[in-house]
Structure formats: C-alpha cells, structure tokens
Design brief:
single chain, 221 residues, alpha+beta, 3-stranded antiparallel β-sheet, 3 strands, globular
C-alpha cells in the first residue's frame, strides 16, 4: 500500500487486518476527501490523533458515501430515543467504525425500498438464498424495538434489521450485525433470566440452542 505524507498517525497495536484498513482509510481521508488534518480518537474525549479520524465530520458529512445518508444520520441523532445507542462522534468521525459502515451500506437500500422494492427483494434473495424471501417490507438501522420493557433490556440494538415475508404472508426478521475491525462481542448477559425465559416461551430454539442460552451465551447468539 502506497503511503502518503499526510496520512496521519497509525496505531502500533493493530493486527494486520486493522493495520491495512486504518492505512487505507487514512490515505482515503488525505488523498480523496482532501481532509489534511486528522482527528482525535477513537472516542470524543481521546487525546491521540489517528489517520482514520475526521475533524468536524458532523459538519462535512465526509464519513458517508451519499449526501442523503449524511442527512439521514443527522435526522436520527436529532430524533434519538432514550434507549437508542447511536454514538454521534463515532458515527460522524471514525472511519473505521462499523456504525457508519452500517449506515453507508443499508441506508441506500432503505431508500431503494421506497422506489424499487422488487430490486431490494432480489438483492436479499441473492444474498440469502436459503431464506424464504418473497418480499422485503422494511429495513431499519440501529433498531431498538419498542416498548423496550417487552424485550431483553441489554442496552444493545440491531445494527440492521430486515423485515420480509414469505409467499404465505408469514413475517420474518433478519438481524444483521455489522463489523469492520471491531472484535465480535463475547460478553455474556449480566442477568440471563430474561434470555432463558424468552427462549423457553418462544419455543423456536433447538435443545442445543436452549442449552446455549442457559449457559450465558453472548448477546450476538
């Protein structure tokens, strides 16, 4: 990978994949976005600068491929519900975060669903040929179902939720976890009683699946 003079500081502790991704985003920031300064990160109160961090991404929108996705991100922050987990600084400024990745990937599909739902359905049929997808009906990003007290209350959200129907009008939800360089979370729930109760009540887990829930499996499970 060809380095550029103003790509900005890198992080010595990166694994090989993250190292390459950080360098690529640093070069993209400096050479393609013409953002010659890099920001603090990975969080708002961090003290170090990294090449993958933008400065004032809240104003420039340069962490998004489409202007409409930037507008949608601002709309979501303006109308953020108490239980939602959207981090504004991460969303607008961290070019290595899976959160803007999710917005960039699924918001165009959200828009396309309004104008050409059949095209979106075809896309997901090809992506998931093993699922009985007849019609995609909705796509949500950073989705927390409400009322929240009816659910697990584990302070997480669906990165993306794709709602679809099969030909017999049965309704399904396809939950998608997006990752870029972050490790897949393995933390067990602090109180698994709700998880176990839900698993038993829904009767949709195999015996092996129910045993995994009872053994404090991670939230991604």
């Amino acid at each position: 990978m060809k380095r550029v003079s103003n790509m900005g500081p890198q992080y010595a502790g990166d694994n090989s994949f993250t190292k390459n991704a950080r360098e690529l985003q640093s070069i993209y920031r400096a050479s393609f976005l013409n953002e010659h300064k890099c920001g603090l990160g990975p969080t708002k109160n961090a003290k170090n600068r990294y090449g993958n961090m933008l400065v004032n991404g809240e104003e420039s929108g340069k962490n998004f491929i489409l202007p409409s996705t930037f507008e949608y991100a601002k709309f979501r922050l303006l109308n953020k519900k108490k239980e939602e987990t959207i981090d504004a600084y991460r969303l607008f400024n961290n070019m290595l975060s899976s959160m803007p990745l999710c917005f960039n990937l699924f918001h165009p599909l959200q828009e396309m669903l309004r104008t050409d739902p059949q095209a979106v359905t075809t896309i997901f049929k090809h992506l998931f040929p093993g699922l009985p997808i007849f019609k995609v009906t909705d796509i949500k990003i950073e989705y927390v179902p409400s009322p929240i007290h009816n659910y697990l209350g584990d302070k997480t959200a669906f990165d993306a939720a794709v709602f679809f129907e099969r030909e017999e009008d049965e309704k399904f939800l396809l939950a998608i976890e997006t990752k870029y360089v972050e490790p897949l979370g393995t933390n067990p729930p602090s109180n698994p009683s709700k998880h176990i109760s839900f698993a038993n009540t829904l009767s949709c887990f195999t015996e092996q699946g129910s045993d995994a829930v009872a053994a404090n499996c991670s939230q991604v499970y």
